[in-house]
Specification:
Layout lengths: L4 E5 L3 H14 L11 H7 L11 E10 L2 E11 H7 L3 E9 L3 H17 L4 E4 L1 E2 L5 E2 L1 E4 L15 H7 L4 E10 L7 H12 L3 E5 L4 H18 L11 H14 L5 E6 L2 E10 L1 H5 L10 H12 L3 E9 L7 H20 L4 E8 L3 H9 L3 E12 L1
Parallel strand pairs: 4-5, 13-14
Antiparallel strand pairs: 1-2, 2-3, 3-4, 5-15, 6-7, 8-15, 9-14, 9-15, 10-11, 11-12, 12-13
Length: 380
């Protein structure tokens, strides 16, 4: 008989070590898993470093068997989600476990019990921690590494979670977008939009005096464009400030293209260098010397892959041919900037499966769906 499974709430330094190092054990034989930077993960789970915890609270659990860590999970409640949707819904996230139904049962039951005790009536997951972070379980596309800020999983996770009564609530689609993509389908639409004398494309201003205002403007477009999307919760001021700091480090002016119409910004897209490419062989360690490699790979050698995580067109233009043309134009512009600079492949992610309008534009520019991330729900 196997040893009993013990679930503990993560509190001690040793337990946090086990929590963060468990994925290294789970994915030891998976060549497509990218080890996260352990220092960054440590900060991500600390309230003083992660502004998510200014409007949310969470519990962290580890499963031990025979004294060895064999699984982990989080349970969290986002006050801003509850204020927006009034649906008594909590979330689970960061689930990792060996291929053992007893371990998955114990972990999910523990998260469910915690959420139920907090008054929740439904659970959705995996959401790690929010839709701005790494939502969904990988269910298609295991044969390639994940891009920056996208999750990875092993195929058995889907089976184990679904056997515990979880059902699909949403799928998120990731698209592959390489230089070989056929641009002919959208060239007329793009050209027509750019012929309009009231349309202007520009790059983001990176100078200190204007950068913060630029980030605020981009988030204003996102809040308008995405406001009707399933599960959407706007960023807080603290989260915007945190994002601005990250963008300032990662982005070049040509990585963000803004479309203005009648003198006002109405659409944009942003592409990030794929940090996962740079850190894939670091084994989770940034020090003592990997930080030098990271700077050299990103700033000197340059990365060959990039991810486009954000694209938005203001709601007033979304149903128009001009709106579609602007979306195509900003995507094409960042594509050309990056591919001309040595990028060889990119990912556009994520897009709700139900968002047929955006998916049509993305497929029009030649992108191909290649990964699916699934969000599950279960009544409590």
């Amino acid at each position: 008989m196997s040893a009993p499974i013990e679930i503990v709430t993560v509190k001690s330094a040793r337990q946090w070590h086990d929590f963060h190092h468990l994925p290294f054990k789970i994915y030891a034989d998976d060549p497509n898993w990218v080890p996260p930077l352990l220092l960054e993960r440590k900060f991500h789970f600390q309230a003083r470093h992660n502004p998510y915890f200014q409007h949310a609270h969470a519990a962290f659990f580890l499963a031990y068997q025979g004294g060895e860590p064999v699984g982990r999970i989080t349970a969290q409640i986002d006050r801003l989600h509850l204020e927006r949707y009034h649906d008594a819904t909590g979330h689970f996230g960061f689930i990792e476990a060996i291929d053992d139904p007893a371990v998955f049962t114990a972990l999910l039951r523990c998260a469910e019990d915690w959420l139920r005790a907090q008054g929740m009536k439904r659970v959705i997951g995996p959401v790690s921690f929010s839709l701005w972070d790494q939502p969904g379980l990988l269910v298609e596309g295991f044969d390639t590494p994940p891009y920056v800020m996208m999750a990875h999983a092993l195929p058995y996770y889907q089976r184990q979670i679904e056997q515990k009564g979880y059902r699909k609530v949403e799928d998120l689609i990731a698209y592959r977008y390489g230089p070989q993509a056929d641009a002919s389908k959208f060239e007329k639409l793009r050209a027509r939009a750019l012929r309009n004398p009231e349309v202007k494309l520009r790059n983001i201003h990176m100078d200190k005096a204007r950068f913060r205002g630029e980030v605020d403007m981009l988030l204003d477009i996102i809040n308008d464009a995405w406001s009707d999307n399933w599960g959407y919760v706007p960023m807080t001021r603290a989260e915007i400030d945190d994002l601005a700091g990250i963008l300032k480090l990662l982005l070049r002016p040509g990585d963000v293209v803004i479309a203005e119409y009648q003198g006002k910004p109405v659409a944009f897209t942003a592409i990030f260098p794929n940090l996962n490419e740079a850190i894939r062989d670091f084994k989770g360690r940034l020090f003592p010397f990997n930080w030098i490699k990271l700077i050299w790979r990103m700033k000197v050698r340059g990365l060959k892959t990039a991810r486009m995580p954000m694209m938005g067109v203001r709601k007033a233009l979304q149903a128009s041919s001009l709106g579609a043309g602007l979306a195509v134009a900003v995507i094409f512009s960042v594509r050309e900037f990056n591919f001309s600079g040595g990028v060889q492949d990119s990912e556009l992610s994520w897009i709700l499966e139900r968002n047929s309008g955006v998916r049509h534009v993305i497929e029009m520019v030649g992108a191909v769906p290649y990964k699916t991330y699934r969000l599950y729900e279960k009544p409590l």
